[in-house]
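the two lines:
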Amino acid sequence: MYRVLCRLLLVLLNILLYNVPAFGAEGGAVTCDSGNTAWMMISSALVLLMLPGLALFYAGMVRSKNVLATMMHSFLAMSVISIQWVFVGYTLAFGSDKFSLIGGLDFLFLKGIGPETLHGDIPLYIFVMFQGMFAVITPALISGALAERVKFSAFFIFILLWSTLIYDPIAHWVWGEGGWLYKMGALDFAGGTVVHISSGISALAAIFVLGKRKGYLKEKLIPHNLTITLLGAGLLWIGWFGFNAGSALAANTSAGLAFTVTHLASSAAALSWLIYEWIHQGKPSALGFASGIVAGLVAITPGAGFVKPAEAIIIGLIAGILCYRAVLLKVKLGYDDSLDVFGIHGVGGIWGALATGIFVTVGGTGLLSGNWNQLGVQAIGVLATIVYAFVGTYIIAIILDKIVGFRVEDEDEVIGLDQTQHGEIGYNM
Amino acid sequence: MKKIEAIIKPFKLDDVKEKLTELGVQGMTVSEVKGFGRQKGHTEIYRGAEYVIDFVPKVKLEIVIKDDIVSKVVETIEKYARTGKIGDGKIFILPVEEAIRIRTGERKEEAI
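prediction for all of em together
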């Protein structure tokens, strides 16, 4: 009775006020489902919680003179990309398809969307918010690679350009109806390709322009407070339930599966990183444990709704070791990915996307069931994202560097970004 | 009057302080310091990158005492700061020319 009334009221309001249909994208009579809507609002808030989590995770790993600047990168993205998203980002990602590459401008500034507009059986506004949180966290992830030397003003412009030119198109390829990877059947449940491969690869491209921190591999550029890094990793773990289980877009069995495998993969990866490092370096480190948590969460992201618990644990165990080895590469090859965005998000994301093609058993078949095709499709998605994100980000970074300068002056870098970029100090003790 | 400067392992401070007080030492100044000697530093590893930390945390004790208890004080510090492992620290003995208690203006041994 309540549902009927609710729907009647919505239809009436729509006709009176907005003249937009209260039906979902699939058509037919769909009403707003209170359970799903509640879960999606909570999930959106959980994904937003990942940003202070990420801010703490990163801030603990930098030197104390850069603690505020590092946290501000994540906080800035929360506001700047949220505005960008409703202005142009959402429509570029989810607007009507153009050439399978990009969304049209039909939802520019959320034009035509009202409080009663539905996406499936949840308010479209909530779908916009939920997807917007993903757009927010992705450039914030990149900031870890640029930490301790990027100029604040340049970072501001960088995330706006990057989100519009790199993130939104890739999100459309994978999730937008009509996107070419979507049509090809690429599986990316919660953004392994869109969020993690894209940010990890872009981080690598950006640091080739930005250059190394002063004193890299000569001075002690060591973490100043690993307690907040652990706290941040814990918040990321919690927020990731919204990220992955929320990607079911409903409070249903798929969300239940995603919730479970997300938890197991991060547990497994934290353990494998810890033990592998213990054997390799002689000590089980707290930073290693925290890094393993994130590596596992990244790796399970694309397969969260497609694999079962046992496979999730295997994906996590391998992710912990793989990302640890990838992080060691940095020192060997001499590039300065300050906080290992490539090593964890890039490598973890690529592994997760391929692992989905191997281990998928729910809603599809993978290599384990003899289906090579899915792994092939996953590989194409990975390759396309790597090429587009790398080339695109490299061009953005070069132009930005020429026009405004990507990094701070040498002296400012030595004094610290908190004082020189923000006029503040993190700790007055 | 002599000044004893002793650099010792931080966890030995409580023992040493207690025994010195029992000897009749009435005051001391303690600082947390960092340095290295033959012990050298230690290594820290962050995500596989190894850093050698040269300076090891130690505690520096400064005590000014009358000449007649110097040997007892030194013996006590030696005994209670020793672990037998490298890095136990060092004791220095310096002559003191003058001591003044600011509140009363007392001089020499009266002031310590």
